[in-house]
Amino acid sequence: MTTRADATRRPDRKAAPKRVRGPVFRLSESPSHLLRRAEQFAAEIFLKADLPGGVTLRQAVLLAAIAEAEGASQSDLVAATGVDRSTLAEMMARMERNGLIVRSAAEDDGRAKSVSLTAEGRRQLDAAVPAMREVDKALLGAIPANRRAAFRATLLALAEAANAQHSANEDAMRAAKKAKPKKKSGARKR
Predict the structure, then answer these.
(1) What is the pTM assigned to this prediction?
(2) In sequence order, what are the residues at sequence separation of 6 or more whose Cβ sits closer than 8 angstroms to the Cβ of residue 57?
(3) How many domains is the chain partitioned into structurally?
(4) CATH number for the domain that contains residue 91
(5) Are 101 and 95 spatial neighbours (Cβ–Cβ below 8 Å)?
(6) pLDDT tens digit sequence for 101-134
């Protein structure tokens, strides 16, 4: 039912925002949100480089991680980049199809894959490095010079905490697999 007040309200007038009772979650004070915004800022700067081949910032990071540890396993690359296992596997499959990397059985573990850059992967990384340096320069340029060292130290502490958490999660998964009872093969007894 429409009231007289509703009928006379102008359609272009906005309703007053509802007041929230209690403490408000402010995005401008949320470290996780601010880190996400900083990551978006970095990705936008990288995109402006308009690299040939359309390599993304995440792909460039993965190429750099592979170049740092040629022959590393996918598990090593998960730890080095912080990219989750399934996303990394998808990225690597695309990069392999595009001729940027090659995966082969690791010498020390036949189940693991050893990852290396192809010549094209090396060219793409070399083309991306100036853009990656520009991203770093822009990020640091947004911070007063006297706070840059503390900023880097804070980021390093966060990365180390992420590595420790990842390692603990991996250990817990391995322990859970070992503790899980194995199914017996063969016919079931009645």
Answers:
(1) 0.73
(2) 42, 43, 46, 47, 132, 135
(3) 2
(4) 1.10.10.10
(5) yes
(6) 999 887 776 677 899 999 999 999 999 999 999 9
